[in-house]
Amino acid sequence: MKRWVKYLAFLALLVPFFFSGSQAQAAETDSVNFILHKIVFPNGEMPDDFQNTGDRNGEHESLLQEYRGLNDVTFDVYDVSQRFYDLRAEGKSVEEAQAALSSLAEENLGQSIASDITKTVNGEDGTASFNLPMKNAAGKDAVYLFHESKKPDNILEKAHDMVVVLPAYSTDNQILSTIHLYPKNEEEIHGEPKFNKTIEGKQDSYEFGDIIPFAVTVDIPEDILDYKKFVIEDTSDPSLVYQKGSLKVTESNQEIGDIYEKTLDTNGFKLNFTDIKALGAYAGKTLTVHYEMMLVATDSDTDIFVNEATLDTDHEVIHREVDVETGGRHFIKVDLENSETTLAGAEFRIQDPANKKYLIHTTDGFTWSDNAKDEKLVVLTSDAKGHFEINGLAYGDYSLEEIKAPTGYELSKELVPFTVTKDSYATGATAALKVVNLKTPETPSEPKTPATPNQPTTSKPSKPNPFAPIIKVFPKTGETTSRALIVIGAILIAVVAVVWWQNKKGKKSQLNEKE
What we know:
Elements: H1 2-19, E1 31-37, E2 39-41, H2 59-66, E3 68-69, E4 74-79, H3 81-89, H4 94-102, E5 114-117, E6 119-121, E7 124-133, E8 143-150, E9 162-165, E10 178-181, E11 184-186, E12 195-199, E13 211-219, E14 230-236, E15 240-242, E16 248-251, E17 254-255, E18 261-265, E19 268-272, H5 276-279, E20 286-295, E21 304-313, E22 317-325, E23 327-335, E24 347-352, E25 357-361, E26 366-369, E27 379-381, E28 387-393, E29 396-404, E30 416-420, E31 433-437, H6 479-514
Parallel strand pairs: 1-10, 2-11, 23-31
Antiparallel strand pairs: 1-7, 2-3, 4-5, 4-8, 6-7, 8-9, 12-13, 13-20, 14-19, 14-21, 15-20, 16-17, 16-20, 18-19, 21-22, 23-28, 24-25, 24-27, 24-29, 25-26, 29-30
Helix pairs in contact: 1-4, 3-4
């Protein structure tokens, strides 16, 4: 019922225009030219129906200037003259007959007599035209129905069918040989366009000096012609440097023309699509922005570098980020026997054990060489606190090779294996890998020659006296003490001698008595 009322109201607005001059002079031409101006309105901005004037003046023309024409809409024309007169013969009024015809289902319309698709004509979008006879086959004034048979996907619903009864008259009661019609459409609710950023052939990690291919994709919205601004901007951390000459914009792998203004920067670019009408040719399609950036060596405390793309329009601002990851390790040089003792001045080179190559510097990063003495060799040196580090390596297994030991320590001949992972650098010095050195041993001093005794070494030692008492030798405490000891010793020897002589004499007397 609501649909019927809308059609009736719409047709009622057309009636004064088509029949206001019914008493005017007869047509002087055999045909009439119909020009359709298809207008599309953003969601929620569709105006109410109002009367056509048939010419290019009035409110419809103003709407066409404010809004835009819509291309790629198909209109079919049907001659409904006989049906119209049959309805009139049944007692239907002109308005009722028009309403009945405009409510016919598409499958009941029969065979169309003409068809056209709206396009750009003389710089105006949404134009379709038909040149049709003023009379039908029976010689009566023709009645035509204009039906929208195909619409773009972003249109909510087709325009109302329009029924035109000839002849049509202008406001000054003149028969119109050219009739301008303004069918209207309303777009669906605006949807945010798909916008993404990726690394083509993305790896889990990269090395300083690697060139990384990026891609930004955007689905051009169906309502792109309603936009006034459409800008893609790319910015990145200082460690990601745009590679000149690498940028191109494609659709289905075909590079598109210069329909944008391009601004390049060290760490990104800006594409401003100023020709919105040219961009409209890609409505519903996907554009891809290809470009390359180099991950360059910088003094940074991070191993994750961010690249961000932004889509900025008068409807939305969308941000997309991609992380570029690299890796590294922290080390600390310590004494083997006391790990609290840190060592400065140790030097190391980095080896890729799988390929027997050594890390060397390039202008912007690293590469690998099989020459262990390459003049651009990367050399790591432990600082005053024993710390040293490496960042900017792809995840994997490596080795440290010591090429100079700290002062006072032996040069290590063992490779120190280490692994670079996602978090191995981020953990910082608190998880530094300890690298040890052994102190250089001290040179032993020459043994001392023992002092020569007072007695000649060639003299034979005297036989020990079995009766000699045990005498402790005390250290000298002075000249007086030494002399006293000598006297006491002499007295003791004399006493012992006397005792020995008396014993021997007594044994001899006993022997004589027995004889």
